[in-house]
Each structure stands twice: as C-alpha cells, then as structure tokens.
Specification:
This protein is of the alpha+beta class. 22% of the residues lie in helices and 47% in strands. The relative contact order is 0.18.
C-alpha cells in the first residue's frame, strides 16, 4: 500500500441532502500543485440483488432513470445506510421491488463505483430459495418486472441492453462463478 500523495489543506461542505453531500477540498496534488478536489459522499451504500429461482430464472427491474433521461433494465437494487447491515438492506430492497423473499443470500461482488469523484461502495448479492410475496414500491418508483432465464439476463449485460454498472458487474461476476464451478 502506497502512502497518500495528496495533502488536504481544508474542506468545506458545499451542498447536502438526505442522500449525498458535496464537499470541496483545497489540496496539494501529488506533483506539488495547488487546486481543488470535488467529492460526492454518499450516505447510502448501493445494494444490488440477483434473485435466482430453482428453475434458473431471475428478475429484472425496468424503470426510467431521471439523471440519464432514459429507460433502464437492472437487477433489483437500492440504497441502504452505510452504518447498517447491508444484508438487511438487500432483503428489504428485493422484497420491495419484486415481492420476493430469500432464505439464502450470498455476497458475490463489492465494488467502488466512480471512485475518482465519489466514495460510493456497491455490493451485489445472489438471492436464492425464493418465495413470492407482494411488492412495496417507493413513491418515486414506477417499476416493471421481467422474469427471464439468468443466461438471458447475462446476455443482456454482455450486449448492452443492461448498462447499469452494478447490474453488469453482478451478472458478469455470477456468470464467471458459474463457469468456475463447472470446471
């Protein structure tokens, strides 16, 4: 591990809301130059869930993404406070968005999302031993659900029909684990 080559001279909070903080730091960069560094600090951890039933099917969630002005197919996901158990957040998000309850939950990926400007951590879980219940969408969610073979969802991640980073990472990681388990 290398030592931190940056020197922070001071920090100031520029903006905050219930989900993020925007911080501006006055810094000396690794080459000795002075400048600013803007950071987006997340109050939630990104949690993604890949539910897989006994028949090898999974569920995708379709929704309009305001920030990108497009419709997106993704694995079920949401935010969960960074100081709380992420597995509880995964079980809650899975139930809210799909109605599914899982008896088995396994972490398959932990990643840093956009680590040049944010501190956001994403965790993807494989959920199995599923039972169906009722959905409970948030006020801001207008979701469509799609049940399809896991292999097809993986193909969507490969061919660009799924572009969400946490979804692509999770699906491709799960695909590689399946290949490794067959060897």
């Amino acid at each position: 591990m290398a030592d931190n080559p940056w020197t922070t001279l001071n920090s100031r909070l520029v903006y905050e809301n219930p989900w993020i903080e925007l911080q501006e730091d006055q810094v000396i960069n690794p080459n000795g130059g002075r400048g600013i560094y803007g950071l987006v600090k997340f109050r939630n951890r990104a949690i993604g869930i890949i539910p897989v039933d006994d028949e090898g099917y999974t569920w995708l969630v379709g929704q309009y993404r305001y920030a990108l002005d497009n419709y997106s197919w993704e694995i079920p996901m949401g935010g969960h406070p960074v100081d709380q158990d992420p597995q509880q957040g995964a079980l809650r998000e899975l139930a809210e968005e799909t109605g599914l309850r899982a008896k088995s939950l396994e972490e398959i990926a932990r990643v840093e999302l956009s680590n040049s400007i944010t501190d956001e951590i994403g965790i993807v879980y494989l959920a199995q031993q599923l039972t169906q219940g009722e959905t409970d969408f948030d006020e801001t969610e207008d979701l469509q659900l799609k049940r399809l073979p896991l292999s097809e969802a993986i193909q969507w991640a490969l061919d660009g029909r799924i572009r969400d980073a946490l979804s692509v990472i999770g699906l491709l990681k799960l695909s590689q684990q399946q290949v490794a388990n067959r060897c």
